[in-house]
């Protein structure tokens, strides 16, 4: 296919319109929507409000709750472990604290559990991929903390709560806002290199739905810089980590406490019995389930395992009737479809523009509203359709250079520049094409301020949990979330460990779950958790033999 | 909301490789020597999956941030080896591919609270950097196009600040360390430099310390408590009427 500056000719024609109207578009910005207009936009164009994306769950503690279809499929599947296959009398790892998940939340929890007195050799992180392979690593834009004189934690709280459509658990939103500055300080002490002005104050930008500029960033590698620092600290301390060994199900004891988990070695297919006085669930999100058929920004292991195993054990779930689609997933070129272009691009001043070169939405609405307005624009024929049929709208990146001076994009969005350059697109000079992509699991296992779940002995932190963001998360609050609640989980689990007494181990909750499925007349054909997504070619799968 | 107002929309399909194939034609790749036909236009990662491989190792974020999918390749009849990330690089015809599942390169252990950014500090923990022969193979094998040799040279000279700056975009895939004739573990070296800079060299924020003191003194507790106690209508009003900095040309 012949391309000009990375785009086919017909797309270049639209880009010419964008360029022609750029000056005018920058001078006459679109105003933010009223709450009423936001609601109208969401109800018509966001998948959360569409018929057919969700259905009622028929089994377990949240029976009759409405959840996304893909999640109901998992929760109505048969538990992946057959209890007869596992011998609980032989303990492979005897620890005080089991942390399931080696991303941001799990690693932060381990560091604070150690600081709160749990001995190193009594902590065990188990993780599905490598330590640090997680959505935490991929967060680009930044982390929110209200530390400027013009700002304060009260305003941050108000943004969190309003952004979540007033459905968040207020005490969790409060913890997020009030703990934030302390987290940034902790990062400074670890050696995280934040973007700063010459006087040492942070360079802070705006994000969608935030009323003050409070986004702290590390170029557009914010999550990576934070994650590699906390991981380095964890490695310095030699906190034990089992890689490629996801926990498949939780273990309970005869007193109804969570007492560890059964890990599965992905390379040898062995299981390991891990007995723990306390367990922290930090398994992350579920983008790889491709709910509502969306492409996703998420890492390979984001398959919602934590939700499933916690639910099997009797924990309850919140707000899984919503998903976060991020407005600016890449729509072109084809190999990048679904990958994120950071919200920081809009924070720096780039405006979404339609096929005709016209702006149509305030660039920094909350993510759900911004996404819905992109979908509307495309549905009504004002989007650009790529050669592979993917719709999208322009994000006029060259505006950033006009606003902040030449070289700004290269210095503040190095990762983005690098990504598009591979395909011959120079985003400093030419807009990029974007369309909403599945980004974040807003809800999850319910926790309280101490990160306790409904089940004694089970704590939760990060994307797997529900309540912090309600039905919509704002930008910069997920990096913050895993730090704030990872820290709290480490501290409170360490406290719990001191008095916990574990009884006789059991997996009877799985047998019970199977019975409940039977009683609900569900005949599962699949098992869950799924551990890894399936992307092999259909032809290969259809011809595969099970003889080896 | 009434049923009538609800609009059913077509969802964007997750693209099936089979559909792509029809449009783009196929090409031949050699996965660890075995020939497979795959659609043109796929990344190396998606091409392997199309061919029937299911990843356990060698696949992480799938977006160029985690460094799990380092790939070494050589095009048929080409002299040079290529280095890239499987999730970022698009397959080419007659490409011979292998991925690196693990990098054996131990990092130095240190207590960041106890060490200081003196000129010789990095040399002390990674003395092998002094053996750098300036061959630049590290830079040539970096999928991020980082000037790896340059930051190692800065580290040797004790310029922690520059070493940190040049290396900042490192995704720690380890390809540099696997290619180095002097057995330098570049990506661990620069991790130390960045932590030293972030902790000891960059000027700290005064606003942050002030805010933390205020929070410790419970300055905001009662105001947030008040908001928590408001009914939905009151808090909605408050939210609706808050001033938005970005709207006033803040950024």
List keywords for this structure.
heterodimer, A: 548 residues, alpha/beta, Flavocytochrome C3, Chain A, domain 1, FAD/NAD(P)-binding domain, 2 domains, 8-stranded mixed β-sheet, 5-stranded antiparallel β-sheet, 25 strands, globular, B: 251 residues, alpha+beta, Ubiquitin-like (UB roll), Fumarate Reductase Iron-sulfur Protein, Chain B, domain 2, 5-stranded mixed β-sheet, disordered N terminus
Q: What features would you describe in this structure?
A:
- The complex is a heterodimer of chains A (548) and B (251).
- Chain A contains 18 helices and 25 strands.
- Chain A has 548 residues and is an alpha/beta fold.
- Chain A folds into two domains: 137 residues, Flavocytochrome C3, Chain A, domain 1 (Alpha-Beta Complex); 306 residues, FAD/NAD(P)-binding domain, CATH 3.50.50.60.
- In chain A, strands 6, 7, 11, 12, 13, 14, 22 and 24 form an eight-stranded mixed beta sheet that branches. In chain A, strands 16, 17, 18, 19 and 20 form a five-stranded antiparallel beta sheet that branches.
- The mean pLDDT of chain A is 96.
- Chain B is an alpha+beta fold.
- Among the domains of chain B are: 78 residues, Beta-grasp domain (Ubiquitin-like (UB roll)), CATH 3.10.20; 81 residues, Alpha-helical ferredoxin (Fumarate Reductase Iron-sulfur Protein, Chain B, domain 2), CATH 1.10.1060.10.
- Helix content of chain B is 37%, strand content 11%.
- Chain B has a five-stranded mixed beta sheet.
- In chain B, a hairpin with a 2-residue loop joins strand 1 and strand 2.
- The longest helix of chain B has 16 residues.
- Chains A and B meet through helix 3, helix 6, helix 7, helix 8 and helix 9 of A and helix 1, helix 2, helix 8, helix 9 and helix 10 of B.
């Amino acid at each position: 296919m012949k391309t000009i500056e990375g785009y086919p000719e017909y797309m270049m024609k639209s880009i010419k319109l964008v360029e022609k109207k750029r000056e005018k578009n920058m001078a006459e910005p679109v105003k933010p929507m009223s709450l009423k207009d936001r609601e109208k936009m969401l109800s018509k164009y966001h998948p959360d409000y569409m018929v057919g994306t969700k259905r009622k769950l028929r089994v377990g503690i949240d029976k009759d709750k409405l959840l996304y279809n893909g999640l109901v499929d998992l929760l109505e599947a048969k538990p992946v472990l057959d209890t007869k296959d596992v011998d609980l009398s032989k303990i492979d790892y005897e620890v005080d604290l089991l942390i399931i998940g080696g991303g941001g939340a799990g690693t932060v929890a381990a560091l604070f559990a150690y600081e709160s007195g749990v001995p190193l050799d009594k902590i065990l992180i188990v993780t599905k991929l490598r330590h640090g392979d997680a959505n935490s690593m991929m967060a680009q834009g930044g982390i929110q903390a209200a530390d400027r004189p013009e700002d304060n934690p009260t305003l941050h709280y108000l943004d969190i709560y309003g952004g979540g459509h007033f459905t968040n658990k207020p005490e969790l939103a409060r913890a997020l806002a009030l703990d934030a500055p302390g987290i940034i300080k902790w990062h400074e002490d670890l050696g995280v290199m934040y973007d700063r002005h010459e006087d040492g104050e942070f360079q802070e930008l705006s994000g969608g739905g935030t009323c003050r500029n409070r986004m702290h960033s590390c170029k557009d590698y914010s999550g990576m810089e934070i994650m590699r620092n906390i991981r380095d600290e964890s490695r310095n301390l030699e906190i034990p980590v089992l890689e490629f060994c996801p926990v498949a199900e939780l273990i309970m004891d005869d007193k109804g406490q969570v007492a560890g988990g059964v890990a599965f070695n992905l390379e040898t297919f062995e299981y390991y019995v891990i007995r723990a006085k306390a367990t922290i669930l930090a398994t992350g999100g579920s983008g790889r389930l491709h709910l509502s058929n969306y492409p996703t920004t998420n890492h390979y292991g984001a398959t919602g395992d934590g939700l499933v195993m916690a639910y099997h054990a009797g924990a309850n779930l919140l707000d899984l009737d919503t998903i976060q689609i991020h407005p600016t997933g890449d729509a072109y070129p084809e190999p990048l479809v679904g990958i994120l272009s950071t919200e920081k691009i809009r924070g720096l001043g780039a405006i979404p523009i339609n096929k005709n070169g016209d702006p149509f939405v305030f660039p920094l609405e909350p993510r759900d509203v911004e996404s819905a307005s992109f979908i509307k624009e495309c549905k009504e024929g004002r989007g650009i359709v790529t050669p592979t049929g993917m719709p999208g709208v322009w994000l006029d990146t060259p505006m950033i250079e006009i606003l902040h001076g030449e070289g700004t994009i290269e210095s503040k969005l190095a990762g983005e520049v690098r990504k598009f350059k591979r395909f011959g697109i120079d985003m400093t000079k030419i807009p990029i094409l974007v369309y909403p992509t599945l980004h974040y699991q807003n809800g999850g296992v319910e926790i309280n301020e101490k990160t306790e779940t409904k089940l004694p002995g089970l704590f939760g932190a990060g994307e797997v949990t529900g309540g912090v963001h309600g039905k919509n998360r704002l930008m910069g609050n997920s990096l913050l979330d895993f730090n704030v609640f990872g820290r709290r989980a480490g501290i409170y689990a360490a406290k719990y460990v001191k008095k916990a007494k574990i009884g006789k181990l059991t997996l009877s909750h799985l047998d019970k779950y199977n019975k409940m499925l039977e009683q609900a007349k569900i005949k599962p054909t699949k098992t869950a958790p799924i551990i890894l997504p399936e992307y092999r070619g259909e032809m290969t799968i259809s011809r595969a033999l099970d003889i080896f | 909301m009434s049923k009538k107002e609800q609009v059913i929309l077509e969802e964007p399909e997750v693209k099936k490789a089979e559909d792509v194939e029809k449009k783009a034609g196929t090409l031949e790749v050699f996965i660890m020597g075995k020939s497979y036909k795959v659609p043109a236009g796929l990344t190396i990662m998606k091409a392997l999956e199309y061919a029937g491989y299911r990843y356990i190792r060698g696949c992480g974020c799938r977006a160029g941030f985690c460094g799990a999918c380092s790939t070494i390749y050589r095009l048929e009849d080409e002299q040079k080896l290529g280095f890239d990330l499987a999730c970022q690089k698009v397959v080419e015809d007659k490409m011979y591919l292998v991925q690196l599942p693990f990098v054996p390169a131990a990092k130095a252990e240190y207590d960041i609270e106890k060490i200081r950014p003196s000129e010789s500090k990095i040399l002390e923990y990674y003395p092998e950097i002094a053996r750098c022969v300036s061959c630049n193979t590290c830079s040539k094998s970096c999928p991020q196009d980082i000037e790896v040799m340059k930051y190692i040279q800065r580290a040797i000279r004790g310029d922690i600040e520059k070493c940190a700056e040049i290396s900042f975009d490192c995704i720690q895939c380890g390809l540099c360390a696997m290619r180095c004739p002097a057995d330098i573990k570049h990506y661990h070296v620069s991790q130390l430099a960045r932590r030293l800079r972030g902790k000891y060299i960059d000027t700290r924020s005064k606003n942050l310390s002030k805010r933390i003191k205020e929070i410790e003194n419970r300055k905001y507790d009662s105001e947030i408590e008040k908001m928590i106690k408001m009914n939905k209508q009151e808090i909605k009003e408050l939210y609706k009427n808050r001033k938005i900095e970005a709207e006033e040309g803040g950024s």
